[in-house]
Amino acid sequence: MVHPILVWQPQKIFYNERSGVPAQPSPSPDRAAGAQAAGPGSASPVSLTLASAPLAGEPAAGEILIPGVKGRTRRPAAKPPRHLADLPMDERRAAVAGLGQPPFRASQLSRHFFGRYTDQADEMSDLPRDSRDALTESLLPQLLTADRELVCDGGTTRKTLWHTFDGALVESVLMRYPDRVTMCVSSQAGCGMACPFCATGQAGLTRNLSTAEIVAQVVAGARLLADGEVPGGPGRVSNVVFMGMGEPLANYAAVLAAVRRLTDPVPEGMGISQRSVTVSTVGLVPAIARLAAERLSVTLAVSLHAPDDELRDTLVPVNRRWKVSEVLDAAWAYADATGRRISIEYALIRDVNDQAWRADLLGSLLAGRLVHVNLIPLNPTPGSKWTASRPEAQREFVRRLEAHGVPVTVRDTRGREIDGACGQLAASAR
Ligand code: SAH
Predict the structure, then answer these.
(1) Is 34 among the domain residues?
(2) Is the model's pLDDT at 168 over the cut of 60?
(3) How many Å lie between the centroid of ligand 1 and the Cα of residue 261?
(4) In this structure, how many other beta carbons lie within 10 angstroms of the beta carbon of residue 69?
(5) Please, what's the largest Cα pairwise distance for the chain?
(6) pLDDT confidence tier of residue 382, bands split at 50, 70 and 90
(7) CB 159 within 8 A of CB 419
(8) Is 373's pLDDT higher than 60?
C-alpha cells in the first residue's frame, strides 16, 4: 500500500529571501474561482514580494487568474476599507481632524469600539448627532458580516463564518470555559502553507486580513459576552489565540498591529493582557526572530507535528525551507528574549507521526527547555485518509514525553461537531 503522505503533492511556496518570510503563493485557477474578486496576499496593507520572477504562466503577486478568461486578467488588489482599528491613536486623531471634527472625538469613538464594542452611530449619545454618521461611516465601516453561526457545548462554543467586504470567507470561534473565554481568530482568508491535514491549507490563500478585520472578530465576541448572549452571564474575552485560518507570521505587520490593538488599554485598544495572547506559527524562522525583538509578552506556539525533517517536510511543507532544528532554535531564542514558555503543537495522526520512537525523539529535543506540548487529536478533514491516533498510542506518546520531563497536555476537542478544525466551516461553505 502506498503511504498517503507519499502521494501528496505540495504546493509551490515562494520565499522573499531578504525578509525570509514566505511570499503568498498566488492562487491557482480553481482557487481563484472560490476567491472570486478577492486578490491574493498583495491585497493586504503589508504586501510580500516574490523572491524571484514568477515562473512562466504563474500569476505575479497582485494578480489572479480568472478561469475561462484567456491570458491574464489583472484586477486591482482588494483592500479593506480603512477602519479606526487599523490606526494608532495619533492617526485616528488626524483622520478625525480630516473630517473637520475636533481630534478628541477619536478617543470617544475608540471608547465606543474598544470599550463598549459598538460601531453603531445611534449608540453614541456623547457625540453630536450631526457628526455621528460621518464619523462612523468613515472610521467604523462594517468589515465582517456573519454568514453562519454554529453553536455547541450548551452555547459556550460558538463558531462564526464571516464574509469580508470582497466576499472572502473567514472563521472565528468563541470558547467559554469556567475560568476564561478564548477567541480563536483568523489572520488570513485561507492559508498558503499547504499543510495536508489542514482544511485551510488545502484550500489555499485568498488574501491577508487587515488589522481591523482581525480585531473585529474579537470585538464581535466581546460584544456577545458583554450583552450576556453566551450562557454563564455577562463576561469578557480573556484570551486570544491566532489559531484560526491563516499563518499569522506570513501577515506579520497586520498581526502585530492587531496584537497591539487587542492588548493596549482602552481607548487605544481592548486591554486584553499580552500574556493571554498566543500567536501560532508553522515556523517562519526570521519572523519568529522579529517577533522576539518586539519584546512583547505573547505566547509563541509552534506547530511542529513531527520531530524529524523527513516527516515534517511533508506534514508542514515550509519545513523544506526551515528545518526542525532551526525552528526550535528560533523558539528557544524567543523564550530567552521574552521569558515565555513555548507551546509545541502536535496533531496526533494515526500511524503517521504517533510512533513511540517519535515521542522519544521529540522528548529528547525538548527536554530541559521552557516548553509545553499540546497534543491535538487529529480532526480529520472531509475525504482525508488520516485519522486520530488510537487511545493506546496517544497514552504512550504522553507517557514517553513525560518520561523526558516534558510537560504535556492533550488538547480538548471542543467544537468538533461544528467543524471546529481550522478552516472546515469555510471549506464546507465553499
Ligand atoms: N498557521 C498557524 C495557525 C493556524 S492552525 C499554525 O500552523 O500554527 C492552528 C493549529 O491547528 C495548528 O497547530 C495546526 O497545525 C492545527 N490543525 C490544523 N488542522 C488540524 C486538524 N485537522 N486536526 C488537528 N489540528 C489541526
Answers:
(1) no
(2) yes
(3) 24
(4) 9
(5) 72
(6) confident
(7) yes
(8) yes
Question: Are residues 250 and 265 located together in one domain of the fold?
Answer: yes
pLDDT in tens, 178-201: 999 999 999 999 999 999 999 999
**Does 16 fall in a domain?**
no
Closest ligand 1 atom to residue 242 Cα is 3
Task: Examine the domain organization and report whether 128 and 242 are in the same domain.
Answer: no
Query: Cβ neighbours of residue 2 under 8 Å, at least 6 residues apart?
Result: none
Average pLDDT over residues 142-162: 95
Please report the pLDDT score of residue 112 as a whole number. Answer: 98
Residue 316 CA, ligand 1 centroid: distance in Å: 10
What is the pLDDT, as a whole number, of residue 233?
96
The tens digit of pLDDT for each residue in 386-402 reads 999 999 999 999 999 99
Helices (H), 264-379: 285-293, 309-315, 324-338, 356-366
51 in a structural domain: no
The confidence score (pLDDT) of residue 39 equals 32
Structural domain including 88 reads: 84-139
- In terms of Cβ atoms closer than 10 Å to its own Cβ (0-12, 13-18, 19+), residue 31 is buried
Q: Collapsing DSSP states into helix, strand and coil, what is residue 190?
A: strand
Number of residues in the chain: 430
Q: What is the pLDDT of residue 49?
A: 23
Over range 70-91, report the average pLDDT.
Answer: 77
Does residue 43 or residue 395 have the better pLDDT? 395
Instruction: Give residues with Cβ within 8 angstroms of 114, minimum separation 6.
Output: 85, 219, 261, 266, 267, 268, 269, 270, 271
Please provide the distance, in angstroms rounded to a whole number, between the alpha carbons at the two ends of the chain.
Answer: 32
Respond yes or no: is residue 171 known to be catalytic.
Answer: yes
- The answer for 74, left when phi > 0, alpha when psi is -120 to 50, beta otherwise, is beta
The CATH number covering residue 386 comes to 3.20.20.70
Nearest CA to 344 among 362, 317, 323?
A: 362
Q: Are residues 302 and 156 in the same domain?
A: yes
* 392 counts as catalytic: no
Instruction: Calculate the CA dihedral of residues 155, 158, 163, 168 and round it to 10 degrees.
Output: -160
**Are 79 and 46 a contacting pair, CB within 8 Å?**
no
For ligand 1, mutation pick of 182, 186, 217, 243 (most atoms within 8 Å of CB): 243
